[in-house]
Amino acid sequence: MSMADFGDDEGTLHRSGCPPTQISSLWDTARWEQPLRRSLEGRPIIWFADDEHRNRKWFSEKHADHFAVLTLSSLDFCRRALDHRTPCDAVVTDIFFPAAPVRSDEDAERLMAIYDQISASPVSQLPSLWDEQKHNWSLDGFCIARIVADAAKDRAERIPVLLFSRKATMLLGVDDWPGEPSDVVANTYWLLEKVDPSIDPESADKAGRIQRDRIVAALGQP
Fold it and tell me: In sequence order, what are the residues at sequence separation of 6 or more whose Cβ sits closer than 8 angstroms to the Cβ of residue 75?
């Protein structure tokens, strides 16, 4: 794992049969949203927010034949895309993002060591592991859920948010979750099948199918 694996993605649109497009290149075009929608031939636009390049690559490869996938690497880039009223039918987002920019391979290795620590920890000890590790991470996925709920209200649209993370078990027993009856809680769903991109092809395909089924189900909710 190197710092390059955490490179910025300000918003890349992946469509089957088309080269990837930087979404910011369209923002200066007058009334660009309508031509974009027409070019997608009815496919939903799914935003995928994740700090790791390999996860964004995996998701776009698994799903660009079924959806238009807009990959983004941070809360700030999601906020900017919303401010430009970039079309969005649903958002799939990781929860954990690095608390500080990854500036070296050593930073990347330190962050990624958490997966081995989770595997080695009994479930009862995972909240303690979060206490040790939380200075390294920011729960930006919950913030993304909040700003998407606000944007959906402003647009008079419905934009479901699907949360997932291989690290979420660390938050059991802590108070970092969004709570109380709210637009954020009502508008979020769990998508548990986040997998290591190096998983064997059969399991990866199965995880991809489950993800698509759940995204389609969330899109179809009243």
Answer: 49, 97, 140, 143, 144, 147
